[in-house]
Amino acid sequence: MNVLVWKPRNSAAPADLSYGWPRVLQVRSTGTPWQLPGVLLRPGEGIMSAAGRAAYAIGLELPSVHRALALDQRPPTAGESEQLVIIVDGGWTDGDDVHAADHSTSPCPHDCQHERRWATSEDFADEIGIATALSAALGKTPAFVVGRGGEVP
After folding, report:
1. 59/53 Cα distance (integer angstroms)
2. What's the pLDDT tens digit per position in 120-137?
């Protein structure tokens, strides 16, 4: 379960793409790949409860309107099984608590071991789930898109 938090290029017109695609908040632990903030869904836990845990872990609160933006079914990789990732709307911010221009990072506000950054569209170009979720958050495609295309085994 991941939370999509985005920063518009123009906070006066957040969904206006004429200024370019918004930046997306990503986190990582030392030596791991950058990714959306997220947690594993606990048995019996609601999706928005898990999303709230993920948001809290990075010092944010979820918006009052709860939306699942995309489902991303990821094929198995070496040593891991197939994953179904739910991407939930974490809202947008015009804050500057992480840096974007030089890809420098800032520590998490909690006492933890991960870094945060504002990623550009080029940074997540290969991540179909993130691109789909961001497009849904901006109102450009319907929220809740399932699948990557191709055949299902």
Report:
1. 10
2. 888 888 888 888 888 888
